[in-house]
Amino acid sequence: MPRSIFTNPFGLNEIDVTQVYPKPLFARVLYDYDGSSEGRLSIKKGDIIQIVLQAQNGWWDGVIQGSEYGRPKARGWFPSNYVEICTSAEAISSL
Where does this protein have coiled-coil stretches (predicted)? Predict the structure, then answer.
């Protein structure tokens, strides 16, 4: 997979990330995470996130489409160990 160097919003100089996916990559959230710091994404158990970047340091960048609770679409970094990869079909059926 192509890799590039990306400067993240957490003050780390550079991190190695995978940035190109042949198909959209989705993850289901396993645990709530409060991303109250700038650049971080707050996630709730059961949310579906489209993965944008996967950093080698364990932080992933993703987009959440919002929810029936009125949460707006948002993008940010979240800990990868709080999610599990799911198929596109699972993600679509959950939205």
Answer: none
With beta carbons less than 8 A apart as the criterion, state whether 34 and 41 touch: no
This prediction has a pTM of 0.71
For the chain, the structural domain boundaries read 3-94
CA-based nearest residue to 87, from 59, 48, 32, 43? 48
Taking the chain (95 residues) in consecutive chunks of 10 residues, what is each chunk's mean pLDDT?
Answer: 49 51 84 93 93 92 75 88 85 63
Strands 83-86 and 74-79, by their bridges, are unpaired
